[in-house]
């Protein structure tokens, strides 16, 4: 097929595995928080590629990092290390609790590494009985068979045969339910500081503190899945920094590469020592292109002006959503932290988040769902206030259309 031949949405149905149902729109270029489709129609982007495009589209710092590295070195494999990987690892270590970093290509891979490390740590330190992993209902940790089993949504893990064993699920924000499950057989508890796919539900400060204390009591590791909350999205570099709690292992992806696929697992020297040579790996993990872009992304985001700006933009988003809700009465609450926000639909509109998403697209706005009851917003961390105002004007029209039927 010639590159010059037209590419349509129908081609997807012809050549792609049918596990996705993409919108009819095919975007072809983006700049900042605006995107244009094949017909040159312009959209405001409040979706950010599902909390990935942390600096919007084609940010000069990321474009420069990628193009400069593309002219030097693309790939080596982990038979050798490379300069961008070492620079990025040092940057992550210097700016977090961690001493050691492992690179992967996605959030699922970062979580897979974290869970394997926790199991190996427990086996070597305590013995084979200590293997239970506790997660929470409605959690999401990736789509590998291990991570999807640990995630608390059976719809994603059922139908693929026998699941990995010794995985338990407590109720999020309910310490008593965790107390009932945790024991000296628990090797790790994994949690999102804000549940993303589960409906943009922040963990309470008391819950985070309580989980940490229970892990300490039972010699279990606390894993923070910061794939969606990390790299500035919460208004801090990582969401754990809003609390006095420090995890034992942290996973990062999405915003980390600003659109380039990369994931990372961060931990301490002592815990990291259990992934000895040959115990885990990734052909592409830590590739020079991804690491060069991620370094530029963190360098740009981890500045007081940007991080404070996230909180100011959160306040603007909430104020605009409040105005819309005062007119149409469709949301029961706006939840979340920083620029990861969810507008929960009230009883009258429950189950209809996709209707709002489609209506928004028709008005020239990209939003997301977090289940069928929540409209999710995860825009660029540096989205101009003018784009927030314009996007919300479009969302207002979309909400009006849904309400009017």
UniProtKB/TrEMBL annotation:
Q: What is its EC number?
A: 2.6.1.11
Subcellular location field: Cytoplasm
- Residues bearing PTM N6-(pyridoxal phosphate)lysine: 254
Q: Which Gene3D superfamilies match?
A: Aspartate Aminotransferase, domain 1, Type I PLP-dependent aspartate aminotransferase-like (Major domain)
- Write out the residues that bind pyridoxal 5'-phosphate: 107-108, 140, 225-228, 283
User: Which keywords does this chain's UniProt record carry?
Assistant: Amino-acid biosynthesis, Aminotransferase, Arginine biosynthesis, Cytoplasm, Pyridoxal phosphate, Transferase
What pathway, per the record?
A: Amino-acid biosynthesis; L-arginine biosynthesis; N(2)-acetyl-L-ornithine from L-glutamate: step 4/4
> What residues bind N(2)-acetyl-L-ornithine, as annotated?
143, 282
Task: Specify whether Metal-binding is a keyword of the entry.
Answer: no
Q: Which reaction does it catalyse?
A: N(2)-acetyl-L-ornithine + 2-oxoglutarate = N-acetyl-L-glutamate 5-semialdehyde + L-glutamate
Provide any one GO MF term from the record: transaminase activity
Q: Which cofactor does it need?
A: pyridoxal 5'-phosphate
Cofactor-binding details, from the entry: Binds 1 pyridoxal phosphate per subunit.
InterPro entries tied to this protein:
Ac/SucOrn_transaminase_bac (IPR017652), AcOrn/SuccOrn_fam (IPR004636), Aminotrans_3 (IPR005814), Aminotrans_3_PPA_site (IPR049704), Class-III_PLP-dep_AT (IPR050103), PyrdxlP-dep_Trfase (IPR015424), PyrdxlP-dep_Trfase_major (IPR015421), PyrdxlP-dep_Trfase_small (IPR015422)
- Miscellaneous comment: May also have succinyldiaminopimelate aminotransferase activity, thus carrying out the corresponding step in lysine biosynthesis.
What does the annotation say about its assembly with partners?
Answer: Homodimer.
Matching entries from PANTHER family are given as: AMINOTRANSFERASE CLASS III, SUCCINYLORNITHINE TRANSAMINASE
| Family the entry assigns | Belongs to the class-III pyridoxal-phosphate-dependent aminotransferase family. ArgD subfamily.
Q: What is this protein called?
A: Acetylornithine aminotransferase
């Amino acid at each position: 097929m010639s590159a010059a031949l037209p590419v349509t949405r129908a081609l997807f149905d012809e050549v792609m595995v049918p596990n996705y149902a993409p919108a009819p729109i095919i975007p072809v270029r983006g700049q900042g928080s605006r995107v244009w489709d094949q017909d040159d129609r312009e959209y405001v982007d409040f979706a950010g590629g599902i909390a990935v495009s942390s600096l919007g589209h084609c940010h000069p710092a990321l474009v420069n990092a990628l193009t400069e590295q593309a002219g030097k070195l693309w790939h080596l494999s982990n038979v050798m290390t490379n300069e961008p990987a070492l620079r990025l690892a040092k940057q992550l270590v210097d700016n977090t609790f961690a001493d050691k970093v492992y690179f992967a290509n996605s959030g699922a891979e970062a979580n897979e590494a974290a869970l394997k490390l926790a199991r190996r740590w427990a086996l070597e330190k305590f013995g084979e009985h200590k293997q239970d992993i506790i997660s929470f209902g409605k959690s999401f940790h990736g789509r590998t068979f291990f991570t999807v089993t640990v995630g608390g949504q059976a719809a994603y893990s059922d139908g693929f045969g026998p699941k990995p064993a010794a995985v338990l699920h407590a109720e999020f924000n309910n310490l008593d339910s965790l107390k009932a499950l945790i024991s000296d057989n628990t090797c790790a508890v994994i949690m999102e500081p804000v549940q993303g796919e589960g409906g943009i539900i922040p963990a309470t400060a008391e819950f985070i503190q309580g989980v940490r204390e229970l892990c300490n009591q039972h010699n279990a590791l606390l894993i923070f899945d910061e794939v969606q909350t990390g790299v500035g999205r919460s208004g801090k570099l990582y969401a754990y920094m809003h609390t006095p709690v420090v995890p034992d292992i942290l996973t990062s992806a999405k915003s980390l590469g600003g659109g380039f696929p990369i994931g990372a697992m961060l931990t301490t020297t002592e815990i990291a020592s259990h992934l000895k040579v040959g115990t885990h790996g990734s052909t592409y993990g830590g590739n020079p292109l991804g690491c060069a872009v991620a370094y530029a992304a963190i360098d740009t985001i981890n500045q007081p002006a940007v991080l404070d700006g996230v909180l100011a933009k959160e306040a603007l988003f909430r104020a605009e959503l409040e105005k819309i809700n005062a007119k149409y009465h469709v949301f029961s609450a706006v939840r979340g932290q920083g620029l990861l926000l969810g507008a929960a639909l009230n009883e009258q509109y429950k189950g209809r988040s996709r209707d709002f998403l489609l209506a928004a697209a028709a008005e020239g706005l990209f939003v997301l769902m977090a289940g069928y009851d929540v409209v999710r917003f995860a825009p660029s961390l540096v989205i101009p206030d003018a784009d927030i105002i314009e996007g919300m004007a479009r969302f207002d029209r979309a909400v009006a259309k849904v309400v009017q039927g």
